[in-house]
Specification:
About 10% of the residues lie in helices and about 50% in strands. It has about 120 residues and is mainly β.
Length: about 120
């Protein structure tokens, strides 16, 4: 499957900070989403914890995370977002996609909003 990119707006859960708007790479191999740490801090999002993640090459890396509002294809979800390196491409993980009711068509490389969320 080729690359799928989508515009995403990130906002803090509380306060009036934000938004951070960027084109995110849809990463079906990633559970959580990621954005550059400075972009998250600039809109008032601060780390709430740290988790260890396995990267595509099998190496392990710790990332700070927080919870944020992500707006994608007209849906707003609360999801965990990682504080990535400054050069990191923003990633949209599967937990946010599923919470928003969005699927990926592998033939057309397009995102589709499901008519209803799965219960």
């Amino acid at each position: 499957m080729g690359f799928v990119n989508v515009p995403v707006t990130v906002k803090p859960l509380v306060g009036q900070g934000g938004p951070f708007e960027a084109t995110f790479l849809v990463d079906t191999g990633a559970l959580d989403s990621m954005a550059p740490a400075s972009a998250l801090r600039n809109i008032g999002i601060e780390p709430e914890g740290v988790n260890t993640y396995e990267l595509a090459d099998g190496s392990l890396r710790e990332y700070a995370f927080a919870f944020a509002r992500l707006e994608v294809l007209g849906a707003t979800v609360v999801s965990r977002i990682l504080f990535g390196p400054e050069e990191a491409t923003p990633l949209l993980g599967v937990l946010a996609l599923e919470a928003a009711g969005i699927t990926i068509d592998p033939a057309s490389h397009r995102l589709h909003k499901m008519p209803a969320l799965r219960l």
